[in-house]
Every structure is written in C-alpha cells, then in structure tokens.
Write a structure and sequence with these properties.
The protein is an all-alpha fold. It contains 8 helices and no strands. It is rod-shaped and about 145 Å long.
Length: 239
C-alpha cells in the first residue's frame, strides 16, 4: 500500500508516539510548520553522522538547537560568503589573465598541468587525477546541458563566440590579403608603365644610334645632316 503524505497533525503524532518527543498545542504546531519537519527535525537528529544521534525528549530542545544554528549562521554566513566570493573572483581573474580565454579546454591545457612537476613514480597517479577532473566536469555539463537553461545558454554561447571569433579572424586575413593583392596590382601597373617608357626610350636611342652610324659610315656625309641628327639626339628627353 502506498504511503500517503502526513499532515502536520499526523507528523506531530508520529513524533510523540514513535520518537517520544513531547510536542503539543497550536504554538508548537506553528513553530514546527515554520522550521519544517524534514529540515527542522530530521536535519538535527544527529551530529555529523547517524551513529551520533541526539536524543530529544521535548520539541523545545529541537527549537533551541534550530535557533542556535540560525544565529550562528547569521554571524558567520556573511563573512563566509564574502570570502567565498572574493576567492572565486580572484581565481577567475587569475585564470583569465593566464589563459586569455574562458574556455575550459584552454584552461585545462594551459593551467591544469601540475602533473609535469611530479616525479616519474607519481606521474601516472597525477595524470589519472587530472583526467578524472576533466571527465567529472564534462559529466556535469552533459547531465545539465539538456536540463539547465543556464548551462545550455553559456555552453552554446561559448561555442558561438568561438565561431564568431574564427569568422572575424578569417575576414580580417582575407581583407588584408585583398589589400596586399590590390597594392601589388597597382605596383605592377606602375612597373608596366615605366617599362613602356623605358622601351620607348630604348627604341629612340637605337634609332638615333643607327642613323649616326650610317652617317659616319658614309664617305661624304654633309655637315648639315650630321648637325641635324645630333640636334635630334641632344634634344630627346631622357626622363
């Protein structure tokens, strides 16, 4: 037969009849409702482990332990949270500055490598510990990926950022390459222009040289012809 959930009155009766704890009245009923049967009573049944069970005889004893625990938490909790947050943020800042990445793969490769400092005898044990840590983190991610929207968001967002970074990097390389190609094409155009001018200059020089040679090889060149060719050669722009 399936056990039905107990009402607050049934829980009080169970504590009286089965656990021999004196609990009665509307005031204690309200207090039990406030602290909760499972959190308030079952959470304080023993100290550290079940073998060190605390023997309660009155509900007021349970209430006193609960109140003491809450006051102790009120004193310590803010300080503990401050230290926890500070250590966490300092650790994250150090990790990001050392790896320049928030990817676990980068952190695993670049920082979780203290196994290298171990001797040969302990190297295998250190490597095994490192692999267990990696597998443990991946198991947590795998378990929560489809169940926890926060994990899903940041995991996908991290991969999307990597994709964006890769695309941006390739676009920058492509742009730089295109700029270099355009610059080289402009340089080639300038080279061709200069070569065209130089070839034209060369042709003109060869023409003048040929005419001068023919004049000098002629037995009776007139002085006017020589002067005319010389003037043409001298007036030619070498630039």
């Amino acid at each position: 037969m399936e056990n039905k959930p107990k009402s607050i009155n049934a829980l009080m009766a169970y504590m009286r009849n089965e656990k021999c704890i004196d609990i009665n009245g509307s005031v204690q009923k309200r207090k039990l409702r406030y602290i909760g049967y499972f959190h308030g009573y079952k959470g304080y049944r023993y100290f550290y482990n079940p073998s060190r069970r605390i023997t309660y005889t009155k509900f007021n004893e349970i209430q006193a332990v609960y109140d003491f625990d809450m006051k102790l938490k009120t004193i310590l909790y803010p300080q503990v949270m401050f230290l926890e947050t500070a250590l966490k943020n300092y650790t994250l800042e150090t990790i990001l500055s050392k790896t320049s990445s928030n990817s676990f793969n980068d952190i695993y490769v670049k920082l979780l490598n203290d196994y290298k400092d171990h001797s040969q005898n302990n190297l295998k044990k250190a490597l095994n510990k490192r692999l267990k840590l990696r597998n443990s983190i991946y198991n947590i991610l795998s378990y929560n990926y489809g169940k926890n929207n926060i994990v899903h968001h940041y995991y996908e967002n991290d991969n999307y950022k990597k994709l964006e970074t890769r695309i941006k990097s390739l676009e920058q390389k492509k742009k730089k390459k295109e700029e270099n190609i355009k610059k080289e094409q402009n340089e080639i155009k300038e080279y061709n222009k200069e070569l065209k001018e130089l070839y034209a200059m060369k042709d003109e020089i060869e023409k003048v040289n040929n005419k001068l040679n023919s004049f000098f090889l002629n037995d009776s060149p007139t002085s006017n012809e020589v002067e005319e060719e010389y003037d043409n050669y001298e007036s030619w722009d070498m630039k």
